[in-house]
Structures are given as C-alpha cells and as structure tokens.
Write a structure and sequence with these properties.
Strand order of the largest sheet: 14-15-16-13-12-17-18
Helix content: 25-40%
Shape: globular
Bound molecules: ligand TXE
Length: about 500
C-alpha cells in the first residue's frame, strides 16, 4: 500500500491540511535534520475531528457493527500491519531514531495488541443479576464509552496509540487521536490501515501539532466522553483538571521512577546484565525504565563497578548502524533536560561513575546523543532519585535489609513498575507483595504481554491499559431491569377523597 498524504490531518475519512495552513517539521534525532513536514492542526481542526467522531458515534451505523464484526476488523488491522511491517518500522525509526531492529520488535508487539483485543471483544460481556425477586429479569450489559480523545507521546508512538485504539475499536467507540508533534508518522499511517480494514468514516480521526492547541480540545470539549493520555506528569495533571470541567472519564499513564532491587543472593550475571537493559534500553526513554538501582551493601562495589564498566562500552549510533546498541534522545530540548538532571545529581552529592557527557565521535555530533550515565552514592532526598530523567541515567542506592529495600522502593510519588533479584523465592514473593507499583518483575526486567494489565499506582496514573481491564476502560456498564409483571407500587396510594 502506498501511504500517501499522511502528513495531512485525517478527519471523517478524508485527508486535509490544517485550516491555518501551518506546518511543522519532524526532526530525525540522530542527525538533527528534517525528515517530514506535517500539517499543524488548530483547535478548530481538532473540534471538527471531534464533531466527526461524535456524529459517527451517534448516527448508529458503527454501533450496528456486532462484536464479531469489530473483532474481524481488528484481525484485519493486524494482518495489514504484518504485511506492511517494514514500512511502519522504517517510519517509526525515522521519527524516533530508535534502532530499526527495535522498531521491528515494536511492530510485533503492536500486532499482538490488535489480536489480543480481537479476542477480548468476543468474550461474553452480559451478566445476569440475581435480584432475589420473582418476575424480574435483570442484567448488566456493556456499551462503548462514546467519543474518546487520545493523546500519545513520542517514545513508543504507534505502540502507545495501539494500546488505546485497539480496545476503543473493540468496544465500539469512536475517537480522535493526537500523537506527539515530534513523532506523528506511524499514527497517521495507521489511519489508512483502519480504513482499509473496514472502519467507517468518522470513527477514527487524527490531528497533529502542539499539545496546547491541537491537543487541548480533547480534554475540554463537551462532545468528548473520555480522554486517554500517556505522557509526562505535569501535562497529565493538566489534562485531568481540564477533563474535570465536563466530568469526562480519564485514563492516564504518566511514567515512573522504577526501583530495580538486587539482593546479595541474586544470580549476579543475570542481575547485572538486566540492570543495564532495564535502564539503558531505548536510551532510558521508557516509562518503566529501571532507573533506580537498589543494591544490597555487601555486593554494591562489585555490582556498580561492573555496571559502570559495561555502560562505558555501550555503542551509540544511528538506527541503521548494525554496531549500535542504542540511539539518540528524542530532541535537543530533552537532552538539555537530561544533562541538567545529571548536573543536579552531582551537585547534590552523587558520584559520577560512567557517562555524564555527550559522545565524542564526530559522526554523532549533529544528533541528540548522550552517553549512558551511572550516578552512585544516591539517596531518596536527591532530585535525581525522585524526578524522572527519561534518559540513560542510573542512580544507585544501597540497602542493608529487606525492609529497607521495600521502604526505599516505595519512597517515590510514582508506582509504575519495579523488579526484585534474588534466589530466595519467599523473599521475592514478600517484596513483590510489598512494592506499590503496577508491574513487578521477579528475576527479570521489561517483558510485558498484551494479555496482562499495564498501569500505575499513585501518580503513575489512573486506570489500566491492555489485559481485560484495558478493554473495560472503554466500556460503560448499563443495568437493565425488566419487570415481567408490572403492577402499581402503591408507594403513594391515592389518599381519601
Ligand atoms: O511530554 P508531554 P513531553 C515524561 C518524561 C518526559 C516528560 C515530558 O519524563 O521528560 O514526560 O515529555 C501532548 N493538552 N514522559 O514534554 O508534554 C503532547 O503534544 C493536550 C513519560 O514530551 O506530556 C504529546 O502528544 N495534550 C511518558 C503528549 O501530550 C497536550 C512518555 C505528551 O507530551 C497538552 C513521554 C495539552 N495542554 C514523556 N500539552 C510515558 N508515560 O511513557 C502537551 N500535550
């Protein structure tokens, strides 16, 4: 399939430029050069997209699609994405500078997400209620929430879009999505796939551009029933407050500050190797990155020496460089933020053990690269331990007891994910139970599957994506009470004449 005009907005099944005629360049992070020019939506354009989604929801055609039909559409989307996987992976890696191999892994995950919700929608969703009364038939049915506003970030652009779009289609919702202004390509391409798979006009709409203009109506407009947001904490709070004005349903995934706990009795080769992947995968631009290493004092020196040595050996490079092990940060502004975060950590007393600098290779000079960084001697009073860097930065803290490990692991406003490394299964189970994070890995880091819920405790968010709960987010539950033998209730009987 030729993906044409993808730089234009997608509203009511048609491509169109932004009404103000403005555009924005997409910058390839590994070179700093423009690789695409997308149309910029005004807030009026987003409102037009919301109106299209509202009309498509209210006119009844899409709602007449059965669960089986919606399931077939999702399977078809997965098939088309499989067919066009290379095109999508190229586009994703061009916008994000992630290695092409990682973009292919993302595509496998994305396809599995569509297949998961294709199955989820076929499960029975009607529940009979035993009211204890004769002559009453009572049941709970599910219905789509309605029009969903979706706002997504730049680190896993199509993956995060698919976590929202697949369940929304499964449920029978209509939607408007605004991908990050830094990485709009694959979300725009997906609109063509949805049309090819048989989604009616107006059900799926996409607008591009700045959050404060193109994104804002998705949390404020009264025709939007739910807003689902993935991104930073500050913007997430703003979206939630805006959505409160019209009491929208809100789903938020806001990142984390995730503890990776290594006990002295762990399989050290596995623990150290995975500690590197936990934090440096995709240059740390992962909401579940294991950015806080908590290590038992007796093994601290060996563990940190080895992690620092291996961090220094990580090869940075562009997406098609076979030797590269990770890539650039998303933007110059984001690298500035990561550098400031490292400087603040050092000023607060952290000891720099690796990285902390931009790479010196001339071929990387134009990209937004930053060396994998290890900050030792950290504690929970430091901003570098509490704030999300969202870059390739590991902070190291020590602990002496299991209780202390748990206390430190929970000493954060976030609660997205964490891991524990030990050969003692009972200890692992106790720690997993005591950590207040949405995903806990035992002797592993990072794997997730579409069948399991994903989301955060505390300020990491509201609601869940994936799994069964990730489908339920897009459903309303309706109780239907059918009195089979109607009779006067006689609550207010007629009084005496
Ligand atoms: O995110 P923003 P940014 C974290 C990470 C990062 C920080 C800031 O710590 O350093 O967030 O990143 C849209 N109304 N995460 O500035 O602003 C915006 O256009 C509606 C964690 O890139 O949250 C984009 O589409 N939408 C995260 C989306 O919100 C608005 C992944 C996310 O951008 C808006 C990325 C508004 N008023 C960053 N303002 C994760 N959880 O994985 C902005 N947006």
């Amino acid at each position: 399939m030729a993906y044409e005009k993808i730089e234009q907005l997608f509203i009511n099944g048609a491509r169109r430029p932004g009404s103000a005629g403005e555009t924005r360049d997409v910058i390839h992070p590994a070179t700093g050069k423009s690789v695409a020019t997308f149309c910029e939506a005004t807030s009026d354009d987003t409102i037009a997209a919301i109106t299209a989604a509202r009309t498509a929801f209210d006119n009844g055609h899409w709602r007449s699609f059965s669960a089986e039909q919606r399931s077939k559409i999702l399977e078809r989307v997965a098939d088309i994405l499989t067919r066009d996987k290379d095109l999508f992976a190229e586009a994703e890696s061009r916008d994000t500078a992630k290695r092409i191999v990682e973009a292919h892994y993302d595509m496998d995950d994305i396809i599995s997400v569509f297949r998961h919700f294709a199955k989820e929608v076929l499960k029975p969703h009607v529940r009979e209620v035993n009211t204890g009364r004769e002559n009453v038939h009572s049941k709970i049915v599910v219905e789509p929430v309605g029009v969903v506003g979706m706002i997504t970030p730049w680190n896993y652009p199509l993956l995060q879009a698919s976590w929202k779009i697949a369940p929304a289609i499964a449920a029978g919702c209509t939607f408007v999505i605004k991908p990050s202004e830094l990485t709009p390509s694959t979300t725009s391409m997906l609109m063509e796939v949805l049309s090819e798979a048989g989604i009616p006009d107006g059900v799926a709409n996409a607008v591009y551009g700045a959050g404060a203009t193109a994104g804002e109506p998705l949390s404020t407009h009264p025709d939007v029933d739910m807003v689902s947001f993935t991104g930073g904490l500050t913007t997430g709070k703003h979206v939630m407050a805006s959505a409160a004005q019209t009491v929208k349903k809100v789903a938020l995934e806001l990142g984390g500050k995730n503890p990776n706990i290594i006990f002295a009795d762990a399989d050290m080769d596995a623990a150290i190797d995975n500690a590197l992947t936990a934090v440096f995968l995709h240059s740390g631009q992962v909401c579940s990155a294991g950015a806080r290493l908590l290590v038992e004092r007796s093994v601290h020196d060996n563990v940190v020496d080895e992690i620092a040595r291996r961090a220094d050996n990580i090869v940075l490079g562009s997406s098609h460089d076979d030797k590269a092990q990770t890539g650039a940060l998303i933007s110059a502004g984001h690298r500035d933020k990561v550098e400031a975060y490292v400087a603040a950590g050092i000023a607060e007393g952290a000891v720099l053990r690796a990285g902390g600098i931009r790479p010196t290779e001339p071929e990387l000079a134009d990209g937004f690269f930053f060396r994998p960084t290890v900050l030792d001697n950290c504690n929970t009073t430091m901003s570098c331990v509490q704030d999300e860097s969202f870059g390739p930065v590991l902070t190291v803290e020590v602990f002496d007891t299991e209780e202390e490990a748990v206390r430190l692991g929970n000493d954060t406003i976030f609660g997205l994910a964490g891991a524990v490394w030990t050969t003692d299964d009972d200890k692992a189970a106790r720690v997993a139970a005591a950590l207040r994070h949405g995903t806990i890995w035992i002797n592993d880091y990072h794997p997730y599957v579409a069948q399991a819920e994903w989301g955060g405790f505390k300020q990491s968010g509201v609601g869940r994506e994936l799994g069964e709960a990730g489908f339920a987010e897009y459903l309303e539950h309706k109780h239907i009470w059918h009195n089979l033998k109607p009779a006067p209730s006689e609550w207010f009987p007629e009084g005496p004449e």
